[in-house]
Design brief:
This is LSM12 anticodon-binding domain-containing protein. One of its GO terms (molecular function) is RNA binding. By secondary structure, the protein is an alpha+beta fold. Helices cover 37% and strands 26% of the residues. It has three helices and nine strands, in the order E-E-E-E-E-H-H-E-E-E-E-H. Strand 2 and strand 3 form a beta hairpin.
């Protein structure tokens, strides 16, 4: 393979600006570049606006019409950050368990409302699982179909009260979403009939 010419290689730490074939301007620091596949990885300012975060963008240079090197870094790139493999392994295991739980709910014939409620509870309380079509929270509270506040069973106490509040809020949020959707549909129907 021929040696890359000028403008065909990007040093780690350099700042570049790219214009994609869609007219989008991307600007950031080069954190990786693969010459064979022409893939460029940029660390860009965060779209979230949070100063301690960055967006990482993969750019296929085959779909870029213009690349400008703003500042070229000629020094040795900084060493790679060490990875916490235990943390990564635990995160992967937890994600796998979540996906298996979702798959179980679908295969068990749980209603979409039940699946949504499970996801809502799981965001707050990680210790929840499926037991057939029932949601079991902290081994103390069981929520049976049709997944309403009245369907929460368990020992009276803070756990049951907390879960009931989560279910109440979830149902209120669903109802307000449905109201907004109905209003939007009514507006669309009125606009179409006019």
């Amino acid at each position: 393979m021929a040696t890359p010419g000028p403008g065909e290689y990007f040093s780690i730490g350099s700042h570049v600006s790219c214009l994609t074939c869609l007219g989008q301007r991307l600007q950031g620091e080069v954190i990786a570049f693969d010459y064979q596949t022409k893939m460029l990885t940029l660390k860009c300012t965060p779209s979230s606006g949070k100063p301690n975060l960055s967006d990482v963008v993969l750019v296929n240079l085959a779909y870029v019409s213009d690349v400008d090197v703003i500042t070229d870094c000629t020094g040795t790139p900084p060493p790679l950050a060490s990875l916490n493999f235990n943390k990564l392994t635990n995160r992967a295991r937890a994600e796998k368990e979540d996906k298996l739980s979702q798959a179980y709910a679908i295969s068990a014939g749980v209603s979409p409302e039940g699946q949504q409620l499970f996801q809502t509870i799981h965001k707050t309380i990680k210790d929840c699982k499926w037991q057939e079509k029932n949601i079991v929270v902290m081994e103390d509270v069981v929520i049976t179909p049709p997944y309403r506040v009245d369907n929460c069973r368990g020992k009276e106490g803070s756990a049951l009260g907390h879960v009931r509040k989560i279910v109440e809020k979830h149902l209120r949020d669903l109802e307000s979403q449905k109201s907004v959707q109905r209003a939007q549909q009514t507006q669309k129907d009125s606009a179409l009939s006019a």
